[in-house]
Amino acid sequence: MMMKFAIALASSLFAGAVTAFAPAVFSRHRVTKTTQLYGRKPFISGNWKLNPQTKDEALTLAKEISASITEGSPDADIALFVPYVFIESAMGAVDGKLSVGAEGVCPEIKGAYTGAISTSMLKSIGVQWALAGHSERREIFAETDDYINAQCLRIIQEGMGVMLCIGEKLEEFEQDLAGSVCAVQLKKGLKGIAKDDLDKVVIAYEPVWAIGTGKVATPEIAQAVHSKCRKILAEMYDKEAANGVRILYGGSVTPDSVDDLMSQPDIDGALVGGASLDSQKFGRIINFKSAVPV
Ligand code: PEP
Q: Would you say residue 128 lies in a domain?
């Protein structure tokens, strides 16, 4: 049974694909052209995690990535989530061509929280975006849905944008629980967030089995979960609100998979780990070619 599933999963994971996109919380320098029916502006983001190892490497990488954004690039929001120590120098290196965000925040504002970084500290150096709920934070750092919700609330209260990561583990995917897991994580993560603040929220659907494994979800699998997430958001808020929220896909996205993923109607962008450490690869991802005109 498991073997049968594994074969089916493997063949579906590496299958072909389709098209897509998203709204605008944040406009960059260029004029915003909308893509889909609901005008959601694409959002391509990179998550550097515990990389690179030196400031010089971070500067070089940030510069090279920013150089890949040209007048001919798709009209998308671009962000890099980088280690705290590199934020300011990366901001200087990209010269306003993209946003540099934080990989996390402490929901507390000040006090005895050794090692923590607050939203006020981040805002004071110009940070506008932060991640919350990444599966590595959930797993390795034991961040709970309640803690993640507190981070989201704090980030929004500060007027920053939050990228809330959600996604199921392999055994949950195998039991057809992706939609249910995402429903729980969305409902708990966004608890107390008003409809009017949804313009500061981006969702990143990141199946845990696809993160750092090289097993990118097929566009069809990703589209199905994204569509389900949008339905859940419609139940939580309403259809109009749900249609305005950008939902990105994350999990082993590469130059080979980005175009087909971005051609899906409910995939509004990407959160990219490994490939965001390679400026050639991430540059190609930023310059994706969607079947939907951008
Ligand atoms: C991530 O860390 O959010 C991620 C998607 O990583 P990767 O692209 O390496 O799978």
A: yes
